[in-house]
Amino acid sequence: MSFAPGEPAPRPALYRDHRDLTPFRRPVIRTPARGLADGVGGMVTGVLAGRTRGTLPVEGGAPRLGRAPGKAAKVVHAAIFGSSDPDRLIAVAHAHPGWAGLCYLMAGLLSYDQGGHLRASELLQRGLLTKNDDDANRYAYTYLSRVVTRVAVAERVEVPVLFSEEAVFLALSHALRETGQSEAALAALNGLPPSLPMALARCSLAASLGRDVEVVADTEGLLNGDDLSAALLLVRARSLRRMGANAAARAALQEVLRRRKTDFTLRSDALTDRALLLLDNGRKALNRREWQHPQPSELQTVRTLRKDAELHELWDREYGRADDE
Question: Dihedral of CA 268/271/276/279: which sign?
Answer without folding.
Answer: negative
